[in-house]
């Protein structure tokens, strides 16, 4: 295996963002006059559906026939409002990178490795996070970005990773994916990628069968040997 590129998921992998997403959803629901309020238990289940708009649709499918339902256009509009609210919350400093992420990204860049993102979240959410945590545009850190608003099928479908690989111009064997969830793991594996899983707040109880490695976080002490050999010469 020649390791030439690292492909990262965003939410839950780069940072523990899901609680901020949940807050943004609930505040937007209230603003729209909806009596929806997603608890942590609710959200743990809903996260098994990739994509925010898809999550809303899945949730209201479970509601009673007499409950208020949003049209597809309303879902898109509500999600746009939620995205703006999320960006505002992130900009206020409500999130930090997970342990080891900043170090790994820096070492990979120094080693001349390619860096990419493959995420079901939207591009504005990606930009909000990189600006808040690095003070940089996403493309300055991750020259290849495949985001959820560019694909028809969200994780666990492999389409998002196949798009990232196409833009990298590399075969799966030359890359490693970093994920925190089972649906992300299955997406990356479906594209033929070896996967390092670092479970997050909402995925720590999942099984991650098939992962090349399952480690608590990406602190240097936890780096798989393939990363140590490729990145650490000191």
From TrEMBL:
InterPro entries recorded: CbbY-like (IPR044999), HAD-like_sf (IPR036412), HAD-SF_hydro_IA (IPR006439), HAD_sf (IPR023214), PGP-like_dom2 (IPR023198)
Record Pfam families: Hydrolase
Gene3D superfamilies noted in UniProt: HAD superfamily/HAD-like (3.40.50.1000), Putative phosphatase, domain 2 (1.10.150.240)
Keyword Isomerase: no
GO molecular function, one term: hydrolase activity
CDD domains per record: HAD_CbbY-like
SUPFAM superfamilies found in the cross-reference section: HAD-like
Keywords associated with the record: Hydrolase
Keyword Electron transport: no
Stored PANTHER family: CBBY-LIKE PROTEIN, XYLULOSE-1,5-BISPHOSPHATE (XUBP) PHOSPHATASE
NCBIfam families, A to Z: HAD-SF-IA-v3 (TIGR01509)
Annotated protein name in UniProt: HAD superfamily hydrolase (TIGR01509 family)
